[in-house]
Amino acid sequence: MNPGKKIYFLSDFHLGSPDHASSLVREKRIVEFLEEIRKDAAVIFIVGDMFDFWYEYRTVVPRGYVRLLGKLAEITDSGIPLHFFVGNHDMWMKDYFQKELNIPVYFEPHAFEFNNKKFWVGHGDGLGPGDHGYKMMKKIFRNPICQWLFGILPPYMGMGLANYLSRRSRHVTGAADDKFYGEENEWLITYCKDMLKQQHYDYLVFGHRHLPIDFTLKGGSRYINLGDWIRYYTYAVFDGDQLTLTTRYPELENKIVRH
Ligand SMILES: [Mn+2]
Prior knowledge:
Blueprint: E1 6-10, H1 20-37, E2 41-46, H2 66-77, E3 82-85, H3 96-101, E4 105-106, E5 110-114, E6 117-122, H4 132-142, H5 144-152, H6 155-173, H7 187-198, E7 203-206, E8 212-216, E9 222-226, E10 234-238, E11 243-247, E12 257-258
Parallel strand pairs: 1-2, 2-3, 3-4, 6-7, 7-9, 8-12
Antiparallel strand pairs: 1-10, 5-6, 8-9, 10-11
Helix pairs in contact: 1-2
Keywords: Cell inner membrane, Cell membrane, Hydrolase, Manganese, Membrane, Metal-binding
Protein name: UDP-2,3-diacylglucosamine hydrolase
GO biological process, one term: lipid A biosynthetic process
């Protein structure tokens, strides 16, 4: 990494939700933030659930989000690499991001190394113990035949069904998520501990939890949860030496769980 350059991580914008007007307010905030970090970004990671629902038909993509998509194109065109990890709300990506935006798309967690620091990055859904209902659903969602069947539905039906399910899933996992369950009960902490038994990482960075968490594990590795851009506007920034989890809006700083 060049001195003065930084690596940014953010996730869980859920654009499209809960309605067009409030999504647009968030989208503009995200675009403004991206424009600002462009000045010193070496790499940008967007770690899933960019959209509340996304499905790429063979020749058509969902309408909307032009400000964000345009900004992403501008960033990669200017030579700043951007990595995207699919989340549980936007895993139905094919090759639009790669072809149109020059953004690699990851469907599984992936390792990176910068300045001798090891990062393990992923959205975080379906990892760790429990959540068997979702793990089964994920198999169906990821199944090529199921995806093909969904794709032959007329979009007004497919998108309608998907938006309904997407909202229902948030209803199920919603409000209770805003408190920290403790080291033993946070399933991504359990997952991180298992990962660290096999290999050392300095930072294990996830989204999905919708609660910003900076948790130091035994041995000094840190589990970072990126929070979201709905309630927290949080992001992690690596300056080449240190990683910091912070928020765009200082008044939200005390919402970050640090342990
Ligand atoms: Mn999410």
